[in-house]
């Protein structure tokens, strides 16, 4: 079972889905995507908590 974060769940108009085997992997992929595509250079603890709450098991 994979864990995913849908970028649209973060409020972005974006179809990207980060998928990984562990929470850490999904967070890392999501952070990289946020930096490259959305120009998010700083991941705050609040953002991490929000992402954690939005992770789905697939
Ligand atoms: Zn995105």
Describe the SSE topology.
Layout (H helix, E strand, L loop, with lengths): L2 E4 L10 E4 L2 H16 L6 H10 L1 E2 L1
Antiparallel strand pairs: 1-2, 1-3
Bound molecules: zinc ion.
Largest pleated sheet = 3 strands, antiparallel
- Which series of helices and strands comes N to C? EEHHE
Bound compounds, each kind once, are: zinc ion
For the termini, the CA-CA separation is 6 Å
Helix content: 40-55%
Strand content: 15-25%
Which strand order does the major sheet show? 2-1-3
For the secondary structure, the number of strands is 3
Shape: globular
What is the tally of helical segments?
2
Q: How many structural domains can be distinguished in the coordinates? A: 1
SS-based structural class? Answer: alpha+beta
Uncertain runs are none
Q: From the alpha carbons, calculate the radius of gyration and give it in angstroms.
A: 10 Å
Kindly report the average pLDDT value.
93
Structural description of this entry:
Helix content is 45%, strand content 17%. The protein has 58 residues and is an alpha+beta fold. It has one domain. The chain is globular. The N and C termini lie close together (6 Å). The model has no long low-confidence stretch (mean pLDDT 93).
Offer a concise description of the structure.
Helices cover 45% and strands 17% of the residues.
Feature tags:
58 residues, alpha+beta, three-stranded antiparallel β-sheet, 2 helices, globular, binds zinc ion
């Amino acid at each position: 079972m994979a864990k995913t974060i849908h970028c649209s769940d973060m409020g972005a108009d974006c179809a990207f889905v980060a998928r990984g085997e562990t929470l850490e992997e999904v967070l890392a992929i999501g952070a990289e995507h946020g930096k490259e595509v959305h120009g998010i250079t700083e991941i705050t603890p609040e953002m991490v908590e929000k992402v954690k709450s939005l992770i789905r098991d697939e």
